[in-house]
Amino acid sequence: MMVTAASLAALQVGFKKNFQDAFTAMRPDADYAKIATVIQSTSASETYGWLGKFPKMREWIGERVIKDMAAKGYSITNKDFEATVGVSRNDIDDDNLGIYAPLFQEMGNSAAQQPDDLTFGLLANGRTEECFDGQYFFDTDHPSFNQNGDAAVASNVDASGLVGNPWWYLLDTSRPLKPMIFQERKKPEFIAHVDPTNSDHVFKKKEFLYGVDARCNVGFGLWQMAYASNAALDGDSLDAAIEKMRSLLDSNGRPLGVKPGLLVCGPKLRAHANKTVKVMLGEGGASNANYNAVDVLDTPWVA
User: Fold this and answer.
1) Is 177 helix (H, G, I), strand (E, B) or coil?
2) Per mean pLDDT, which of 10-14, 20-24, 49-53, 179-183 is the most reliable?
3) Shortest CA distance to 220 belongs to which of 169, 177, 263?
């Protein structure tokens, strides 16, 4: 194949299709969308000053009463991401291009999986990363309220398991704001650097560059919507987590109405998770009180 502007344009179309087909095929099944609210960003960073303000309805007597949980300014700064493939001019000359289709398909697959990687990676680091209230996302002393509406602390983590135990997460994903935030500034875009006359890289390396770039980042939503545990995954530990989450109160001493409905775990706990909530009868034939109590998300993005 002769290297001409027309042939390079045709190659770009083909490579982009390889990328886009793989990218589109992966997106509908993306796990991150099940636990993260997608926010369209319009600047270098976004500040979520409203986090922690639960707008609960109350009887309107006199003037409006404005109460909220004390919150620090919480910002998510977008990051740049890229992946690049170099195509040898010799391969174009020799019409040896079939080897590149899988590479661009893999690039599309990687771009589609990146939100999963970022979102679940941050979830797993929630015990050492701060959220809007200045505490770690999973912590034992989040600012909260008691039944009198007075300041108190609440925990959304159980670290009572053995060191090295895999972690599992119980989430309420039923609300518009999910436990995690995926902030998207620029969707993955396929680009090419192929001008044979004006490109120093093409001149020096005899290589045409094709790639994808994107801008995005992830952050935490409401800690009240999430619970982490490394205790043995069974009915007792699940019950304890559900009770903790459902007992959280607002500044009026009323329930926040948290409804945990998704159990997130990695492959190591898949069988334990299914045994805990997907088996109708327990050992000895006794009814399983937690049968279908929550859905299970077994994802490779959680170790």
Assistant:
1) coil
2) 179-183
3) 177
- Within 8 A by CB and 6+ apart from 251, the residues are 67, 68, 69, 145, 149
Residues in the chain: 303
- Residue boundaries of the structural domains of the chain: 5-54+70-298
Q: 235-246 and 270-277 are packed helices; what angle lies between their axes, rounded to 10 degrees?
A: 70
Q: Where are the alpha helices (DSSP H) in 41-100?
A: 89-93
Q: Residue 300 has which token pair?
A: 């490779």
CB 108 within 8 A of CB 26: yes
Strand spans (E) along the chain: 36-40, 45-47, 75-77, 79-88, 142-145, 151-154, 157-158, 168-171, 180-193, 207-220, 226-229, 262-265, 295-298
pLDDT tens digits, one per residue of 163-216: 999 999 999 999 988 999 999 999 999 988 766 555 676 667 778 888 999 999
pLDDT, tens digit, for every residue of 252-263?
888 999 999 999
Q: How far is CA 192 from CA 3, 10, 94, 101, 198, in A?
A: 15, 12, 20, 15, 13
Q: Cα–Cα distance between 248 and 255 in angstroms, integer?
A: 6
Integer Cα distance of 244 and 156 in angstroms = 7
Phi, psi angle pair for 65, to nearest 5°: -110, 120
More confident residue, 201 or 104: 104
pLDDT at 251 over 60: yes
The pair of three-digit structure tokens given for residue 26, joined into one six-digit string: 């992966």
Determine contact, residues 85/209, Cβ cutoff 8 Å. Answer: yes
